[in-house]
Amino acid sequence: MGSMIELKAADGTAVPAYEARPVGNPKGAVVVIQEIFGVNNHIRQVADGYAAQGYVAVAPAAFQRVKPGVELGYTDADMGEGFGYKTAVEALPAPGVMQDIQAAIDHAAKVSGGKVGIVGYCWGGLLTWRAACTLSGLSAAVPYYGGGVTNEAEAARQTKVPVLAHFAEEDKWIPMDSVEAFKKAHPEVQVHTYAAHHGFNCNQRGSWHAPSAQLASDRSLAFFAQHLRAN
Question: Fewer CB atoms < 10 Å away: N or C end of the chain?
Answer without folding.
Answer: C
